[in-house]
Amino acid sequence: MHLQNNRANKARFSWLTSLTLLLLSSTGPAMAETTLRTYPTADIYEYRWKVLELALQHAPGKGPIPHLTPYDQAVPQSRALQLLEQGEIDVIALPYSPERERASLPIRIDISYGILGYRLLVIRKIDQDRIDQMDEQTFREKMTFGMNSQWADVGLMQANGLSVMTSSNYEAMFTMLSVGRFDAFSRGLNEASRELSQRRVSYPDLMVDQTLALYYPYPVYFWVRQDNIALAERISSGLKAALADGSIRHLLLTSYADEIAEAKNMHRRVLMLKNPMLPADTPPPDTSPWWPH
Fold first, then answer.
1. Which of 152, 155, 169, 252 is the most exposed place for a label (fewest CB within 10 A)?
2. What is the Cα–Cα distance from 220 to 97, expressed in whole angstroms?
3. How far is CA 209 from CA 105, 146, 147, 154, in A?
4. Is the residue at 181 inside a domain?
5. Can you give the CATH number for the domain in which 197 is found?
6. Is 232 domain-assigned?
């Protein structure tokens, strides 16, 4: 009798184990498909993920809309690319670089309407008059720009003959500027004022330059793992549909209404730069919604 009970218990355990494995195998992939882990995650990138939400909503016949989950660790961009390759991150939203294309698959639709390439200069207040008096040649020769070593436009700035000082610590850049290690911290139109206002108490000596801006083609793409063709196609089709019906344009104009209005009112001189890092067939950015230059 005891032997029969043992056999019955073993059979029951084997059946439960098989059922559990079957349930895990059937629910695992479906659960994974309903969540996309995203990078980067700071507040200034909120617009990018709203664009992705629009794209997923507009992608026809592709199943349930995934939930976007920010990757919860602070890692540099180079490490994020490795995590994308390893499947720890599903979608990255960053500007184009040849290195990124070698490591991942871009969806070649600029989600920023070129706004990130309009660069404002965070400077020391005491330097405003000095910068005002510079002509273009003097500006190119005398100014040194602080940049994060991970950013894709470091080589772009250098290729245009500008002096660059890099650091891997983003927050340290504000301190380095404040103590005079370099002359200007180049930030996107959608970034400069927001970032500086968050640090107004810590850096009351800094301001956004009022008279000058840089501009260069600097498209922001979504990137996925190279073998994740299905996700790339889903995002691409959704982006095209959301662009066609004006959803993304509306989101841009509402998300950055204050920054766009400020740029129009300031009438800055704009120094146009080239981006030799882009493939030759890259279309020029469509800035018409906010800057019909």
1. 169
2. 10
3. 36, 15, 16, 20
4. yes
5. 3.40.190.10
6. yes
Instruction: Give Cα separations from 173 to 74, 112, 158 (angstroms).
Output: 17, 24, 18
Characterize the bridge pairing of strands 105-107 and 220-224: antiparallel
Mind giving me the DSSP string for 108-168? Answer: ---TTTTGGGEEEEEEEGGGHHHHHT--HHHHHHH-EEEEETT-TTHHHHHHTT-EEEEES
Instruction: Say which residue the tokens 């994974």 belong to.
Output: 32
Judge if 91 and 126 occupy the same domain.
no
Q: How would DSSP label each residue in 25-60? A: HHHHHHHHHTEEEEE--SGGGHHHHHHHHHHHHHST
Integer Cα distance of 257 and 249 in angstroms: 12
Q: pLDDT per residue over 45-89, tens digit each?
A: 999 999 999 999 999 776 789 999 999 898 999 999 999 999 999
Pair (208, 222) in one structural domain: no
Q: Assess contact for 196 and 262: CB atoms under 8 A.
A: no
Residue type, 246: G
| Cβ atoms of 54 and 242 closer than 8 Å | yes
Where in the sequence is the domain holding 127, given as residue range(s)? 116-215
* pTM of the entire predicted model: 0.85
Q: Please, which pLDDT band fits residue 236 given cuts at 50, 70 and 90?
A: very high
Go through 65-88 and write b for each residue having 16 or more CB atoms within 10 A of its CB, e for each that does not.
ebebeebeeeeebeebbebbeeee
List the helix and strand counts (H, then E) for the chain: 12, 12
9 within some domain? no
